[in-house]
Amino acid sequence: MRPDPSFCMDESDGAFDALEGMADMINGDIRVAGAGCAAVDGVYRIMGVFGAFPLWAQVGGAFELWRNSSHGRGWEWRIGKKNDYYYVNASNTETPLQGTWTCATGPCSNRDASGPPPSLTTAWLDELAGAKEEIERLQRRLEELQAGLTAERPAKGPQETRLLQFQRALQSPAQALPQDFPQITYDEEGFRVVQIQALGVKHNGVVLEPIPNGATVMLHRQKMPGSEELRKELTIYFDVTDGHFDLVEDRKRLEDGLLFIYFKKKRANPPSNLLKPKQPLKLTLTLPVPSRHDWVKSCKGESDGELQSSGSGSDLCDLLTVHSREQLEL
Questions:
Q1: What values do phi and psi take at 147, rounded to 5?
Q2: Closest CA to 260 of 313, 224, 326, 206
Q3: pLDDT band at 210 (very low <50, low <70, confident <90, very high)
Q4: Whether the predicted pLDDT of 327 surpasses 90
Q5: What pLDDT is stored for residue 74 in this prediction?
């Protein structure tokens, strides 16, 4: 049986000292994995004290990990719930990471607890192992780049710059994961390339959004040993006086802690060949103009009324010439 952990939260019995020492020993979280009953797998986090030992609760689950005395068998570690045990470790060890875990037996055992029993490790050790593998991979890549530079000795350029970045990161582990993402820009094979130092960032932690003449870059680096979680949004913009550029998203690549973003420069539109006359245009219209006699008749109301005027007849007649046709130049 497991009582409420709050029953044992008395500083006078040294429980808090035991909790602090235990937390230092295993650094808090415990990862349970590989159990025949997969429901008990997961990360367990310290939530209190039971007796003089820490009590862990499953993150996002209902199971707990604690130490208690068994009936006539001494102390044992248990994974389960109150009066409902799935796996036990009867090795009488100081931490649940030691000894041998087995399926629980007896009246409080749960029949769903099938083999194999789980293995327990500290969660931070798993993260440290992943970081160690990443460092080893970077070291191998560094050796490849060094071999290539020794064989070819190319002119100083982006490849040698990347090599120097790797060397600094590996030689100074405390600075391997900076709190910023520095970048450089250069032209390469018809592309404008923006190179961002993104150590610790994975492919799913990069999101690109095109903007006029540039792009926004959202970077997310998850929490790692020696480095907190980091989110940054960068804006890449090229001055229009330098040309117009489009993001080429399918060329984006992330390798060896460096993010490469490519832009393609647009070709300038050719000037329009607009018609520009060398001298003013001259348009001549030849229109029939009624004779003075016809207009006089119209003004006096004697014609058929094909041409009508809103002005007085005498004014219109005074403006007409005696010619039957005239040329009007515009």
A1: -65, -40
A2: 206
A3: very high
A4: no
A5: 78
Which single residue is written with the structure tokens 């460096």?
A: 258
Mean pLDDT (the chain) is: 75
Strands (E), 14-122: 30-33, 42-50, 53-58, 64-70, 74-81, 84-89, 102-103, 119-122
Per-residue pLDDT, averaged over 151-165, amounts to 56
Specify the amino acid at residue 226: G
Cis peptide preceding 116, ω within 30 of 0:
yes
C-alpha 54/C-alpha 18 separation (Å) is 8
Alpha-helical (H) ranges within the chain are 15-26, 123-152, 158-171, 292-299, 313-319
What is the token pair recorded at 81?
A: 């719930």
15 close to 9: Cβ distance less than 8 angstroms: yes
Q: Are strands 214-221 and 230-237 parallel, antiparallel or unpaired?
A: antiparallel
Distance CA 8, CA 275 (A): 96
Percent of the chain whose pLDDT exceeds 70: 60
Give the DSSP H/E element, type plus range, for residue 215.
strand 214-221
Rounded CA-CA distance 101/315 in Å is: 123
The tokens of 18 are what? 């035991």
**Given this model, what pLDDT does residue 246 score?**
93
pTM for this predicted structure: 0.36
Residue 250: phi and psi, rounded to 5, are -70, -10
